[in-house]
Predict the 3D structure of the following.
Amino acid sequence: MKQNTVTWFKSGAPWVWGSAATVSISLLMVVSLLVMLAMRGFGHFWPSEVIEIEQPAGNTFGERKQREEVPAQRLRDMGMELPESVEFVARRLMKTGNRDVTGQDFYWLLEKKIENAKAPAEVVVLERREWGNFYGRLLSVKEAGELVVSGDDTYAELQKRLARSDELFGQIEEIEKHKIGAINYSMERLRLKRRALELKGALDKAAEEKIRTKRDSLQKEYESYQSELQALYRAIERDSLVIETADGQPFEQPLRKIVRAYQPNKMSLIGKLGFYFEKLWEFVSDDPREANTEGGIFPAIFGTIMMVFLMSILVTPLGVIAAIYLREYARQGFLTRVIRIAVNNLAGVPSIVYGIFGLGFFVYFLGGTIDQIFYPAALPAPTFGTPGLMWAALTLAILTMPVVIVSTEEGLSRVPKAIREGSLALGATKAETLWRTVIPMASPSIMTGMILAIARAAGEVAPLMLVGVVKLAPTLPLDGNYPFLHLDRKFMHLGFHIYDVGFQSPNVEAARPLVYATALLLVVVIVVLNLAAISIRNRLREKYKALEN
């Protein structure tokens, strides 16, 4: 028996089984994490049942949320009367909305108090642009303060007028955000152009007249849009509704403040599925609202992907060139070994240090110099001398460069020496051999380095807080205004969005599900970017496999 055990250990089977168990546990943990994020995050968008809770101070509508068991003594210390025989009490977090009326939209309630609560079919949930949800019974719809409809047809009439209100709101947003925004951008460019000519001493009467004519044209266009906006605002202020809370208090709500209205207790399964996917699409395609605790996160998704693409474009050539020099051209001696040790050590430097370096060197020194040379007309307002997209991408390129250098060097070292010698024997120069033979064969390793760089850069937050990321960016870095890609603009990022919503939100309970949903979406974005790079790498491997053999 002892001999069999020794033989079994010598065969290496325990290490195989141990490795398999470790990999299985790791996969199980990853899958469990993703399932937890999906359930707690994307489950938030499902239309929950709304119940009516009887309270001594008056009835309340609410949705069941988190459940937990707490020691009964803790509740007794808070003044709650409970039998001494009870050790633990189950309670549930209720979302009651109506924050502008009650001052809070979440509170804990003992589960036994809601066991027999009823779910009235007529209850309506109003999702508002401000102050969160409002729960109540719909009484009537008004137009310009006059009663239009009440009774059974009120809900159908409300949906028609909400569609009109949403259309008007979209037109207002289009004018304010895009058309007037483009005019303001053009006006600012004219101001800078005039200031630049003034600094050069070239502002003659002809140039002044040309700028004035263009400015007057933009001003007339701006006034036209302003008139259109005033008409739209008057139109959107027309409709309102009257809704009654569970304790019988009526409140009038303007339709311009309402995103959607629905009756979750009347919805069929098909209706709930449609609502769920509508909310899910809004989450990934819309702008945030209500201090980032409502609406979507499209600007953060866009900013994350744009920053990663720019970082990849910057880090790949720099890292590959450095690796080629170290492997192919540098004399392999003491200095080269020191450089390699330094590169390896850079991979372990805390990311916040790179952020401080980026702020000091890229933003203040390099950006300030660029402003002095190329943008003197804008001074003292900085153009590139302030955190922005380009400096964030450069900072993360420096942060991830050691990974690309090491990976590329490994790929170059695996290219057989015979291939280099054969290329040189056929008359190719060393540069031609590198460009046409060695680098293509090492490209899978280069892609591996880029994959690792993408995975790290997409999740970094600390350095970005110093060099460009913000809580809410008014415009995207890419738009229809020349030069279209604005590298000087600040941007939103999924990682920082998670931090902001999770730890800086004024309404923690409302924000918690969005933290999970955003975290899962960040994982999905990283996986998609990595899968694209892995696909390219695998194709390159297949292409150059014959040469390696």
Q: What stands out?
A: Residues 145-237 form one domain. The chain has three domains: 50-137, 145-237, 298-548. The CA atoms of residues 126 and 537 lie 49 Å apart. The chain has a mean pLDDT of 87.
